[in-house]
Write a structure and sequence with these properties.
Mean pLDDT: 94
Shape: globular
Radius of gyration: 21 Å
Structural class: alpha+beta
Order of helices and strands: EHHHHHHHHHEEEEEHEEHEEHH
Low-confidence stretches: none
Number of helices: 13
Number of strands: 10
Helix content: 40-55%
Oligomer: single chain
Strand content: 5-15%
Distance between the termini: 35 Å
Largest sheet: 5 strands, mixed
Strand order of the largest sheet: 2-5-6-7-8
């Protein structure tokens, strides 16, 4: 039976850390106020916060759709040997995007009642429509991403290399450090047995940018702690850029692991300053979570409406 808890479980992730650094009030909405907002008898603020937590935007929606589709294609190929044609994959992506657009434009009332089952795009909710430049950018990415995936280094390895060990994505969820659950999101992981390497793959749907070595180090730390990979030299991290059809590989050092462990420790201390009861993970009153002073961040925030109300 599903257990209803008065307070959420405390956990850590790099995205949670970044949310706190960006705006403590947003952090409160995302990780505390929205808790139990899916329950019928929750208070209005919890329901509203949960609804806005489920809101998405064009960029995030497209990235999520691509990642889900790639995972499905690889899983199906490993089971059946079948590879769908590029045109079919593009059509499936377009269908996902169109459904979200229709939900946002035509089913807003249903989204308000059941935000888990219907989608709402930030651009439509707050601005009434999709900016032309954003639509054009998504159309560009849509036209090339699946073709570049099918010819990528990673999918070529999946198809052609025989001495490979593939690990189910569902196994890569969390690890514990100092008693704190740390969530890890890995797109794809496999082991090249012949080369003696573990390859962690990140599918990138946008432009190349400065890589966050903390995120890469978390991946490596997970492999060392959970899969008992002995040395950092056995771990290779590969970014597949689906917009350009290129890839980059990264080799980390023990110093990278030490730095992310240090960041984790400092971040947990900062998060606990906003708790009234650390053991229960009971937050302070949300008015004690300050709002950011950078207005530009507010324009992109899902919780903008709630922030203006309270």
């Amino acid at each position: 039976m599903f257990e209803i808890k008065p307070y959420p479980e405390f956990s850590w992730s790099l995205s949670r850390h970044k949310a706190l650094m960006e705006c403590p009030r947003k952090y409160a909405f995302e990780y505390y106020i929205s808790h139990n907002g899916w329950l019928r008898d929750s208070n209005i603020l919890a329901k509203d916060a949960y609804r806005f937590k489920k809101m998405t935007n064009l960029k995030i929606l497209f990235g999520s759709a691509v990642h889900d589709l790639i995972l499905s294609v690889i899983g199906n190929y490993l089971n059946t040997g079948f590879i769908p044609p590029e045109a079919e994959l593009i059509q499936r992506l377009r269908g996902t995007m169109n459904t979200a657009f229709k939900d946002s434009m035509l089913r807003a009332d249903l989204w308000r009642e059941r935000p888990n089952h219907f989608q709402m795009l930030h651009e439509i909710y707050y601005n009434g429509g999709l900016p032309r430049d954003k639509v054009d950018e998504i159309q560009k990415r849509l036209s090339v991403s699946m073709g570049n995936f099918l010819t990528s280094k990673t999918f070529t390895d999946v198809r052609e290399k025989k001495e490979m060990q593939f690990v189910e994505a569902e196994r890569f969820r969390f690890m514990f450090i100092d008693g704190v659950k740390i969530f890890i999101v890995m797109d794809f992981l496999y082991r090249d047995i012949k080369e003696g390497k573990w390859i962690i793959v990140d599918w990138k749907t946008g432009k190349e940018s400065f890589e966050d070595r903390h995120q890469l180090a978390l991946y490596a730390l997970y492999l060392k702690r959970v899969l008992k990979v002995k040395t950092i030299e056995e771990i290779v991290i590969r970014n597949e850029y689906l917009l350009t059809g290129t890839h980059k590989t990264y080799q980390l050092t023990e110093t990278d692991l030490e730095k992310v462990h240090e960041l984790f420790g400092m971040s947990v201390v900062q998060m606990q300053r906003y708790l009234d009861d650390i053991r229960a993970n009971q937050a302070l009153n949300f008015n004690l979570f300050p709002k950011t002073n950078i207005i530009k961040k507010c324009d992109r925030c899902n919780y903008k409406e709630l922030c203006e109300m309270y």
